[in-house]
Please model this.
Amino acid sequence: MILFWYSVILFVSTLALNFYLLIGFKQIKQVSRQPVMDSPPPLAIIIAVRNEEEGLEKALQSVCHINYPNHRLIVVNDRSTDRTADILKDFSLRYPKLQVTTIDTLPDGWLGKNNALYQGYLSSTEEWMLFADADIVFHPDAINQAVGYAVKHEVDHLTMLPELISRSSILNSVFATLSIMLMIAMKPWEAKNPKSKASSGIGAFNLVRRTAYEKIGTHVRIKQRPDDDLQLGQLIKKEGLRQDVLAGKGYVCLEWYRNLGELGRGVQKNSFAMAKYSITQAIVNVLNMLLTVALPMPLMFIFGTPVIRIMASVMLIVHIIYMELVPPNKWWYAFMIPLSGLFLAWHFLKASIITVVQGGIYWRDSFYSLDMLKGRG
Model:
């Protein structure tokens, strides 16, 4: 009887959530369909880099050839020890709009990337600022069209959902499941609704009006948060400022991680922060992933009655339809949902335990203690 009602609840919620997500995605406009501005406002593009030699040249090539005459590119080199400094020097000689700021020491109480972005802000004067990651490849018109949308709609903060590109099909299938979980949690299409608590912050593309950024207290307010992009979006929404989201398919591309191992290590940075550094909340989050993502269909197919198996089959068909309708997903990603859920649950739990045991997180060759992350250090 327990399995029956568990199956009924998951059956109804799965159908409802898939429908809800499809409706939500339809509300997010494509940046590719926005007009190009002839006279865009002044813009500072601020990118923090640390040991980015592998993908930096490709990303800089794209951002140095954007269709945006009134911009300045500020790249903050945060204590890099590889060839990053040489690459930046070469680009700065060829592209006069590129300004390199070098950080040699990390101030107490700051995470490296947060400090680098803040230093980029201090080096800028422009009306608009775009905080972007160092591995983003931009279409030449992407930034122009995004700023044009923000100006036209009087938005204070605009984020962009990047197109995730991976050389691994298995990794892409995990991304598809993770994307569903993130979209349910974030509800980015509701960010523009002032009555909704939903907000959006995306490290790949955070375009913010200077006055809005200063009103929320800049990165000083979130200097100890590894999920700085999410926190930036939340602060802007809490201040009652206007926020919106665009989809960047084909225009803002990102190879987020190259393999499952990198994804697992990447989870360590943010997962415990999302649980507010509470091991109890982390366990609740992991159990939720297991009970709602990883286990439903396997339990229903293996142990269920014919009626329960019919419900599981309908759930699987709905997932297949969803994957087909939301590019760049492939239909067979639906079969990977249980394994992806198990993979993510395990790494969320592992990351939380490791963080507690070692008393903090290692990220980009720096150690940040839990006391510091909690604001006590």
